[in-house]
Design goal:
Layout (H helix, E strand, L loop, with lengths): L1 H15 L4 H7 L6 H18 L3 H9 L3 H31 L14 H6 L4 H35 L5 H10 L1 H10 L3 H23 L8 H23 L2 H8 L11 H35 L16 E2 L16 E2 L10
Amino acid sequence: MVVGLIILAVITVGVETKIDPSLIASSGLLEPSLLGWQLIYILPVAIVTNDFFISGFWMRTFASRTDKDLLIGTSIATVAITIILGLVGATGLLAFWTGAYPGDPPQSGSIAFFLLLGQLPPWVVGIVLVMTVSLSTAAFDSLQSGMVSTGSNDLFRNKLGFWWIRAAVVTIIIPVVIVALKSPSVLQIYLISDLVSASSIPVLLIGLNERCYWWRGFEVVAGGLGGLMTVFIFGTIYYGSAQEGAYLLLLENGLYSNDWSAFGAFVAAPIGGLLWGFGAFAFRVAFQWTMAKIQGRHFDAFDHPPPSSPSFSTGGVPDEVGSENEPVAVQGTSLIKGKFF
């Protein structure tokens, strides 16, 4: 469906739209801008950290038979997504250069694609809209299923009945629709979640490194909350107002405020999160050392954790004749739980 949509859109846009060469230079879209340079940093940080919270990515990761299969799958997806996003993103340029944007009366730049679509024949518009809605619902279905699966596993340890899970899938649609109708901007919702992930994921990644066995949940929580606090402090200093600093947490001005507020927020979130995380680590170690001295017990903050069986191993599995096939993932069990403090 995606390939069909791209082929249909490329052919019809190429045939039906007429670019006005005089609008290319006057638009200024090919000139460097402050926002363009800022987005080179903001978008990778926002997207990469936010993807850690998307259950669909983890479901596909653990569904891979081997690391090689995962690498091949992600490589193919990366090439396909790059091509698709490049073509879809180019519609904004074409909308401006063909005169479809900003229109009369002027319209928001977020609907430039649909303004360009309005210049195409009605039958093409109908097909593209049906495909677009189908792709959107397919993406929503994956996110919705991932949210319910995560909740069932983390909160109820997969002890809920099958029909309760189905009921949860249907029920979760209600708040999603309400938020979509009430929110002034869908982009703002994404930016808020991106800011939360940018503050919490860097301190979380430290704990995933085997060499950082001394990193615990206390540092992750403190770092994540501290990152958001750092954004508030930055906004208060930048705007000279605590209220504006609080609004920056919600990114009320979006990405297109033509200042350094959004960029500063996405710099303050990960750096502040790391600083608060290491500060929490120093506090925890000092507290544990003090308590160990007072109680006369062993100071174990830097002790290696006991060995445990991995949750997933990729060892070779022998076949019927005794030779060894390619490695496959084998689920195991681990009785060693991490410590929060």
